[in-house]
Structures are given as C-alpha cells and as structure tokens.
Amino acid sequence: MVTTTVNLIGLSRADYKGRPSTLCQGCGHNSISSQIIAACHELSIAPHDIIKLSGIGCSSKSPAYFLGRSFGFNSLHGRMPSIATGAVMANRKLKALGVSGDGDTASIGFSQFKHLVRRNLPIVYIVENNGVYGLTKGQFSATADKGQVLKKIGENPFMPIDIAMEALTANAGFVARSFAGDPKQVKELIKAALSFDGTAVLDIISPCVTFNNRDESTKSYSWGREHEQPLHDVTLVPAREEIQVEYEPGQTTTVEMHDGSLLMLQKLDREYDPTDRMAALQLLEEARANQILVTGLIYYNQDQPTLPETENLVDTPLSQLPAQALRPPKETLEEILASFR
Ligand SMILES: Cc1ncc(C[n+]2csc(CCOP(=O)(O)OP(=O)(O)O)c2C)c(N)n1
Ligand code: SF4
Ligand SMILES: [Mg+2]
C-alpha cells in the first residue's frame, strides 16, 4: 500500500501521528510507535475509535507520540490493566491499545497483567521489552538475563520472566513476539492484534540504546539481528481488501480473524502450528534454552469469551446509557433492602 495516499476513511498517515518524540534517538520504542501509526493508517481505523493506555516508563510515555487524535490515559506505574478494564467495560465500542514496559508489566504490574489476560479483556497489549527500567536510568527489570552484567548496576542473579510464556499460561488467545529491528513484522503483527477480539499480547524486544544495548545483551539490536528466527512471514489482509500477496499453496496458512480479515502465515524454515498451545510452550522453552529470538505469531485461539461477553454487557456502551437504564428502580432497591431486614 502506498503510504502517502489517503486511506479508506480519507486520512493520511500524518493524521495518525502524535507529538514529536522526546525519547532517545534510536530507542526501539520510537520504531514501534512508527509501526503503530502505519498499522492504524493501513487498517483505516478512525483515530477517535481508539483509546491508548499506558503505565509509567519511557515505553509508557510513547503513546504521546502516536495517534494524537485518539483518546488516552497515561496511568500509574503497573496499573494500566485496571484502568484499561474500567475504560473497556464503560465503553466496549472503543478499541483499546495498551503500551507498557517490561518493568511496568513484569515487575510492579505483574499481577494486574495476569488478571487482565485471564479475564480476556479486549485489548492490544504491547510490551516494549528492553530488559531495564529505562526511565529511572537502567536498573535490571524482571526480564533481564540471569548473569548479565551492567557497568553501574552489577550482576543480575535472577532468572528472567518470559512475557510471552506468562501470557500463554494465563490463557491469552493471541500471543506474539517481535523485534523493533524488524519493522515489517512488527507492523503486520500489530495489524493482526488490532483485528483480534480478546487480549492480544505482543512482547516486542525494543532495545534501550542508552542503558542496555551492548552486543552480549539479548535485548540489544546486534543480538536481535544475529539471533532472530522468524517462525513465518506474516501478512494481514484487511476484510475490505483483496488478497494481492502471492503465495504457494501448502506453504501458507490462512487464519480468518474475528473481523473477517485474513492473517497469512507463510512458512519459512520450520513447520509451526500457532493453534497448538503445547507446541507454543515447547517453542518458548526451546528458544530460551538455545538462546534464540523466535518471532511471529506464537499462539492463536479466537474461541474464548471476552470479558464484556462473560459479563453479559449490553451492546450499547454503558457510558452512553441514560441513568434510568443503569440504576435499578426505587422499588427494586426497597425489595433488596427488605430482604436484609
Ligand atoms: C509506584 C511507582 N514505583 C516506581 C516508580 C519509578 N519508576 C518509574 S518508571 C519505572 C520503570 C520503567 O521501566 P519499564 O516499564 O521497563 O519502561 P522503560 O522506561 O524501560 O521503557 C520505575 C521503577 C514509579 N513511577 N511509581
Ligand atoms: S533511556 Fe532507553 S528506553 Fe528510555 S528513551 Fe532512552 S533509549 Fe529509550
Ligand atoms: Mg524497560
């Protein structure tokens, strides 16, 4: 698609931008912001249909730098999941796009993250994973490698938390891993996640060029480039577009997304079935043991009720219902009170 042209709703890519970034030049988070802009533009999503959510960190600052016309809530460190839950339950028509960091998600916000996933809140949940607390000057986060040494911090004695693994064990229906140095894959996975109905977790290795970009770090650009092994070539064809990608039969798996879009996974070196949860767990374990950065769609399952469905929410957003539809009538309240007497 030519990106200088307007999309199906008459908007150019510039209409999806935010304010100029104040992050360090070369920060992986800037690259991910650019792919969020491109993905939303290419999918012709109306910016006012999106709510951006984040916690605290360089990553959580980044929603200021994309989708300047969307709603947004930059919340507290590690508390984005509860704010997101409130926002989505109050207005289920909004598309939630959460951006968090490895500190924000895997340290202080870890329990919030796990509960958001197990409830299957409809949200695209991006973790911009750099293995450090960038904003507070480079302390190890919970995803840092065991034995890694950083000049001013010392050696990390603890095993890392694997965010994709945690999403899988919490029963997420969409789990992907990518690398900020692979922008095309990042963009296509974001598009697929935006077309998914439920919690879509994207763990994106996003190097911190200031505090954690030495060659030996598994969160650096050079390590990622050398060790990335994509599972497949990912392309999302939106429901309204015709398939223009050429593919050999038998070499491409086509997954129909909830909104009718087609996700095309073209086979590369290995056979991989992203609907096999056991295979996904094994893949992540092998990748950890062999120090490989596997990227792509790790797991996919559309057949789980989302939180608004589980709670039987009405289609009309609660935020748009009149007070008399939200409050029980006086007689009902009296009946309830009487039952306690
Ligand atoms: C409750 C609370 N605890 C601690 C902090 C300090 N703090 C701010 S950002 C941050 C870590 C950010 O790390 P991460 O989420 O990985 O984002 P990055 O800056 O690396 O993108 C911490 C510990 C805070 N703001 N609030
Ligand atoms: S300190 Fe690190 S994470 Fe923060 S903006 Fe700079 S490069 Fe990015
Ligand atoms: Mg971080």
Number of structurally distinct domains: 1
According to DSSP, the number of beta strands is 15
Enumerate the distinct ligands.
thiamine diphosphate, iron/sulfur cluster, magnesium ion
CATH superfamily caption: Thiamin diphosphate (ThDP)-binding fold, Pyr/PP domains
Instruction: Describe the main β-sheet briefly.
Output: 8 strands, mixed
Chain-averaged pLDDT: 95
> Could you give the order of the helices and strands?
HEHEHEHHEEEEEHEHEHEEEEHEHHH
How many separate helices? 12
Rg is 21 Å
Key terms for this structure?
Rossmann fold; 31% helix; 341 residues; globular; 8-stranded mixed β-sheet; alpha/beta; 21% strand; binds iron/sulfur cluster; binds thiamine diphosphate; binds magnesium ion; 3-stranded antiparallel β-sheet
